[in-house]
Every structure is written in structure tokens, then in C-alpha cells.
Amino acid sequence: MRRLLILVLMLFSLMIPTSAMSSNAVEFSARFIEKDNDEVQKGKVFVAANMSRYEIEGSEEIIVTRYDKKVVWLIFPKLRKYVEQPYLGEPKKNYEGPGEIETGDLSKKFIENDLVDSYRLKKFLVTVKYNKGENEDQYYEWYRDNFPVPVKTQSMDGRTSYEYVNIKLGRPPLEIFAQPKGYKKITIEELAEIEEGNEQPK
Fold this sequence. Notes:
This protein is 12% helix and 49% strand. By secondary structure, the chain is mainly beta.
């Protein structure tokens, strides 16, 4: 059940759009590294126009979001099953990445240039103000030329971050975003029962 809860929370976070420095569409594939204190989650991300696919390392789940069809598929290759959920946001013309909620006033301040893996990255301090400026959040973003999505986002204390590595520009094969064939469609409740059954003592 714990894995199911983590999956649902991750799905919710992936459905939140973020701001980008450019309105140009970007299509790419990459590996991602997400750090939350001492916990590290890795995987692969594939992005084409109006669709995305996340493969989480060490898990048995794949998340495919079709913004054009307003649907999300949670795919379980080992079980040969998948869950279909509605996408609750508006169809997205451009991929803008996970993580940042579009509320309040957002501003970016250039800090410095960093050289990472032979790429020259621009580091920004991002400030988001809420409640007419009474409250604010701050974090860092790094950008690469010709890539409008933040290559890395990091909290001020450095304890949490989200980073793309091994970025390959260009459209991934569109078949990887297709509704799974030969898989049984189940409900989220049936998935919970399967998860609970797997956690029972043998």
C-alpha cells in the first residue's frame, strides 16, 4: 500500500505545470534525479508535444500523461495491467516540467554562470510571493542555452532538488506514449487490493 500511496502522490505532482523561460515547445528525453533529504529517486522522462512518460527506476510503474486526451495511464508491465485516470488540468501545448505551482508573483534574479558537465548553465534565484507579498518562497534554478526547461531546481538549503541529466533533444518515438495494448484495464481500487495482497505475509 505504501508504494501505491507514493505513486498517487507522484502522479499528483507531475500534473502540476510550472513556468518556463520560453514559450517554445521542447521535446526531449533525459534521466532525472530527485533528492529529498537522504532519499534519492531516479528514472527516465520522455516528452513530446502534449504528452509525457516517466519510468521510475527500481519500481514497476510507468506514468504516461496525454494532455491532448486529458488522460493519465499508470502502467504496470509485470502485472500486464494499467489504471486510467482523468487528467484534471488543461491540455498543454508545451512541456514545462514538474514541481512549481503557478500561484502568486514569480520573479527570477540571475546569480552566476556555472559549468556543469561541460555545459554553461545560468543560475537564477526564484522568488514566489503570496498573499500580496506577505509570504514568499525562494529556490534556485539552472538553465541551459536552447533548453527552456530548468535543468535543475534546488531548495535554498540544498536538501531537495530535481535535476535532468543526459538530455537528448528531439521527439521520442510516439509509440511509447500510446495506450498499452495487451494489458488489462483495472480501477485504482483493484490496484489497491493487489498492492495490499502483495504485502500480506507469505
